[in-house]
Amino acid sequence: MTPKKPATDTDWHNIWQRMMSKCSAIGLGENGYLKQWSIDEARDYLQHAHTEYPEALIDLIKIDAEDAVLDIGCGPGVIALPFSKLAKAVTAVDSSSGMLQVLRENAKAQKSGNIVCVNKFWRDVRVSVDINTEYDVVVSSNSINLLASREQTINGKPLQDWSLVDAIAKMNHVGKRVYLTFHLSRDSFSEVFKVLGREYNPWPNHMIMHNVLYQMGIRPNFNVIALSNRRAGDSETWLRRIDWLAKLSLKEEELVLEYLENNKRRFYDAHQLWGVFWWRN
Ligand SMILES: C[S@@+](CC[C@H](N)C(=O)[O-])C[C@H]1O[C@@H](n2cnc3c(N)ncnc32)[C@H](O)[C@@H]1O
After folding, report:
1. How far apart are the C-alpha atoms of 92 and 185, rounded to whole Å?
2. Distance (Å, rounded) from C-alpha 234 to C-alpha 254?
3. What is the DSSP annotation of 182-207?
4. Is residue 115 part of a domain?
5. Into how many domains does the chain fold?
6. Is residue 238 assigned to a domain?
7. Maximum Cα–Cα distance for the chain, whole Å?
């Protein structure tokens, strides 16, 4: 067989955009836009966040006491809270007011007075108005694909406009060092969708993201973080996460719970693997 000539003109951003526009792992609200987190959901998220994960990231990033950090898609503060104890200042951006409220209550409890919250979609954030013009460290933890979203209404219909290139160009504009973290472990949701007999369209994987970065002229470093999974939650926690995304009927809940109970090791005992792309500007 004659090997195919490698395509040199593949538009990786277009591939990424097409995958995002039909990805089954994106939670959508009743209004058709990205689902917003309630305060209880945000608290639950923080409660089950992995404590070893920010520690491993701190080891990699090596925050200096004079550093200004920008945490985009910060959620309830999984990274912003521990980083604020080491850095001079942290700016935390998130589109969810529920997530930011939980971040603020935890910042108060741990007496971190150096966190500023910005409640906006990343692509709508105005540089030098909502955030500063320069940060020593920019981090997007477990959120990079979603940070590329922007809500639009076309002919009265909700529409997500996806641009990873736009989101990353903006990070580069303000950041001296940029860190993007993402799950490398198996995509557990795909298995659950199979059990439910539903079609599943996955996230674009990190290879696709790498190719988009490469075509933007970025040559990222790549690190892997391996963790035990001791705080990932039990079957009930997983059921809540799956329901958040897939809106299960009662019958489906029973089916998923039974599946989770029979596959504990795969779901919450297995080790977690994280990938980190990072570079200096
Ligand atoms: C999976 S959570 C990650 C939270 C946290 N960074 C972590 O490491 O656990 C993704 C977060 O990104 C936020 N988000 C989603 N799309 C966003 C956007 N376009 N701009 C800003 N935040 C966004 C969500 O509200 C959510 O809090």
Report:
1. 26
2. 15
3. EE-S--HHHHHHHHHT----PPP-HH
4. yes
5. 1
6. no
7. 66
Is 97 part of any domain? yes
Ligand 1 site-directed mutation target among 36, 81, 94, most atoms within 8 Å of CB: 94
Give the number of the atom of ligand 1 that is nearest the alpha carbon of residue 181: 8
Q: Both tokens of residue 141?
A: 């933890």
The answer to whether the predicted template modeling score (pTM) of the entire model surpasses 0.70 is yes
| Residue 16 located in a structural domain | yes
CB 233 within 8 A of CB 267: no
Range of 97's domain? 12-20+32-186+203-230+272-280
Nearest atom within ligand 1 for CA of residue 121: 20
Query: What is the C-alpha to C-alpha distance for residues 168 and 147, in angstroms, rounded to an integer?
Result: 9
For 112-146, what is each residue's pLDDT tens digit? 999 999 999 999 999 999 999 999 999 999 999 99
Any idea what the CATH number is for the domain that residue 172 is in?
Answer: 3.40.50.150
Using the structure block, give the residue that is written with the tokens 């209004």: 31
DSSP assignment of 38-96: PHHHHHHHHHTS-SHHHHHHHHHH---TT-EEEEET-TTTTTHHHHHTTSSEEEEEES-
Kindly give the distance from the C-alpha atom of residue 259 to the centroid of ligand 1, in angstroms, as a whole number.
28
**Four-CA torsion 112, 93, 170, 218, nearest 10 degrees:** 70
Q: What is the pLDDT of residue 186?
A: 74
